[in-house]
Amino acid sequence: MRGLNFILFRTNRGDSTNRPCCFEKCDHIIGLGVGRSVPLSRVVRENKSPPKGFAAKLEGELNAFSDHAARQGRLAPPRRVLAMGFVFFAMLFLGTSCSKMKPEPATLFTFQEGHMGTQFTIRSWATEADEAAMKKATSEAFAEIHRLEMIFSDYQPTSEVIGLAEVLANEPTAISDDLAEVIETSLELSRETDGAFDITVSPMIRLWRMARKNHQLPNEKQRTMARERSGFEKLKLDRENGDLTFLTENMRLDFGGIVKGYSADRALGILKKAGFPSSIVAASGDIAVGDAPPGEPGWRIGIETLGSELTGTVLLKNVAVSTSGDTRQAVEIDGVRYSHIVDPKTGLGLTERIGVTIIAPNATTTDSYATAVSILGAKKGIAFVESKAVVECVILERDVAGELVKTESAGMAAILVE
């Protein structure tokens, strides 16, 4: 999602050169609609744990000493006594020699690549010794994002989704497992939100893109034709056989409201599997968050309002957060301000000023829920979120007087730390 902003804070940085005062100590700004980011130099923090592998090395030396004594025909000290001796030595060593044997510092590495029409940012904490392995894992994560782009893109000419444009109505077509998984998730959310989230509205979205470009509203005939080719109930998924069937002609799919979060989840999974759990993957306004940075309880993420002020900061680990809004992607036509977010019921951009932030276990959920709640509006949106056990939300709106109105789910206040 795009629109509102996330600001990732590091309290140990004081460089605020050329940044607004409210963004001091920010390492990175995510979700500015065009994927803009603040350059980041690597941040070094000391890891105060004992040297890696020390316990295993100690045990190995213990076994070697005992075996050597037996071969020499000497009675080796009892294992417990020997172990106590080594433990005493270890304690003495760690207590008196740490100043001479400094642990290898942890470093925050940042990588960025453009995918899916935005900028993906990967940040991982690692030691210098693990730098090569970490870079390899990051390359694999970006490769996975690119692979998914070639499935879900609606503008890459060779993508799987573009290929579905050739499929005739009522003709089952085999699709990839990734595509089937995301369609299944999307259809479930469509049913839960009465169509507020709908991946079949691509004809409406394409029509609205032209309207924004030309600053001219589509006429009723154009909108009617687009609506006739849309509707999640016209999509049939056979998960068991991996088949997809369009129930009307000329249907098109758009995954812009879910696939960035899905890709962030997959990329973070690769980093964790490679041994770098203290990582985040940010796709504009969708962030998959891994383990906390070394020595800290979580990643500090600031939420920007519909303007330029921060509404709060959250401290997160092993969850995800997404934001949706029209802060920088609105258009004015005939004196009316329209959002880039299309309402499936009207085929036009939203006219209400709204910004939504969702926190949930994964970015696939936060990305899609942020879109759905934006369209549902504050009242229905909060009711929907409150029906979910592990989802929190904050909604920001501008009233007719231009004042900011905030609505939060019941558990959001406990998450906000500032």
Report what the structure shows.
- There is one protein chain.
- This protein is 34% helix and 23% strand.
- The strands form four sheets. It has a nine-stranded antiparallel β-sheet, with helices on one face.
- It has a domain of 44 residues.
- Helix 6 runs antiparallel to helix 7.
- By secondary structure, it is α+β, with helices and mostly antiparallel strands.
- The N terminus is likely disordered.
- It has ten helices and 18 strands.
SSE blueprint and pairings:
Elements: E1 6-9, E2 26-30, E3 43-45, H1 54-71, H2 79-97, E4 106-115, E5 118-127, H3 131-152, H4 160-163, E6 173-174, H5 177-192, H6 202-214, H7 220-228, E7 235-238, E8 243-246, H8 259-273, E9 279-283, E10 286-289, E11 299-304, E12 310-316, E13 320-325, E14 331-333, E15 336-338, E16 354-360, H9 363-386, E17 392-398, E18 404-408, H10 412-415
Antiparallel strand pairs: 1-2, 1-11, 3-4, 4-5, 5-9, 6-8, 7-8, 9-10, 10-13, 11-12, 13-16, 14-15, 16-17, 17-18
Helix pairs in contact: 3-8, 6-7, 8-9
Q: Assess the beta-strand content as a share of residues.
A: 15-25%
Helix/strand/pairing category: alpha+beta
- Extended strand count: 18
Outline the biggest β-sheet: 9 strands, antiparallel
